[in-house]
């Protein structure tokens, strides 16, 4: 797996995640694309930035859905939301109410994920939302990007340990690869700019391959 071989929508997800990480926000992003793969909208986590009065609500999926111009792109039921991480309660509710009916998710979130709640509501269940779980290398990569963010910015040792334990429930390989990459000092020689996303992705992919041997 290399950045260059990913579909364009997944390339954009991880590029946005790196952008969020560089800004100190959570490494989580989402895009909305049509069946031809054209990206119609995007959003990234901006919870550490002053983009809205209450940045705690600036979550990737919510931003991507809010940014979808339904006047220009009215067939919202036909589009797919590609999410790096399983949406939380707020983002799950936003996609239900926002008309999104197809979701592809790289990594499960055993702690904050809320997609199972769709089945607990007659209203949400009636929307017939199609959920595709990738549960593969992209899930490990998602958690690797999140791990890098926490290792670089999280100064609460107890919280950091708890979060990495949570990330490892489904994606231990990605967490380990990120820990090794940060410990190696490789990131210190990289420019913290959006263009670095591909290099970071590929460096992590190489480590994950070695770990899996």
Apparent shape: globular
Tell me the fraction of residues in β-strands, as a range: 5-15%
Total DSSP E strands: 5
Radius of gyration, taken over Cα atoms and rounded to an integer in Å:
17 Å
Order of helices and strands: HEEHEHEHEHHH
Strand order of the largest sheet: 2-1-3-4-5
The major sheet is characterized as:
5 strands, mixed
Structural class, from helix and strand content? alpha/beta
Our count of helices gives: 7
Distance between the first and last residues' Cα? 14 Å
Which regions have little confidence, pLDDT < 50, spanning 5+ residues?
Answer: none
Helix content bin: 40-55%
Architecture blueprint of SSEs:
Elements: H1 8-22, E1 29-33, E2 39-44, H2 60-67, E3 80-85, H3 89-98, E4 102-107, H4 122-125, E5 130-133, H5 137-153, H6 157-184, H7 197-212
Helix pairs in contact: 1-5, 2-3, 5-6, 5-7, 6-7
Written description of the protein model:
Helix 1 (8-22) packs parallel to helix 5. With 213 residues, the protein is an alpha/beta fold. The protein is globular and about 50 Å long. The two termini are 14 Å apart. Helix content is 46%, strand content 13%. The chain has helices at 8-22, 60-67, 89-98, 122-125, 137-153, 157-184, 197-212, and strands spanning 29-33, 39-44, 80-85, 102-107, 130-133. It contains 7 helices and 5 strands, in the order αββαβαβαβααα. It has a 5-stranded mixed beta sheet with strand order 2-1-3-4-5.
Features:
213 residues, 5 strands
Give a summary of the structure in a few sentences.
This protein is α/β, with parallel strands linked by helices and 213 residues long. The protein contains seven helices and five strands.
């Amino acid at each position: 797996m290399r950045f260059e071989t990913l579909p364009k929508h997944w390339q954009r997800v991880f590029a946005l995640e790196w952008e969020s990480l560089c800004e100190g926000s959570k490494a989580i992003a989402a895009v909305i694309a049509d069946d031809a793969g054209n990206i119609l909208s995007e959003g990234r986590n901006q919870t550490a930035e002053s983009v809205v009065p209450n940045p705690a609500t600036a979550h990737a999926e919510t931003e991507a859905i809010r940014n979808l111009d339904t006047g220009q792109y009215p067939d919202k039921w036909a589009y797919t939301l590609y999410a790096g991480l399983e949406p939380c309660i707020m983002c799950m509710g936003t996609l239900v109410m926002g008309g999104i009916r197809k979701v592809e998710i790289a990594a499960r979130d055993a702690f904050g994920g809320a997609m199972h709640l769709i089945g607990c509501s007659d209203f949400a269940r009636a929307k017939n939302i199609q959920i595709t779980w990738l549960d593969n290398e992209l899930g490990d990569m998602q958690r690797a990007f999140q791990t890098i963010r926490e290792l670089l910015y999280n100064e609460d040792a107890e919280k950091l340990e708890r979060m990495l334990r949570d990330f490892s429930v489904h994606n231990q390989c990605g967490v380990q690869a990120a820990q090794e990459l940060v410990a190696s000092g490789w990131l210190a020689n990289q420019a913290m700019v959006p263009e670095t996303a591909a290099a970071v992705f590929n460096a992590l992919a190489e480590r994950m391959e070695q770990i899996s041997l």
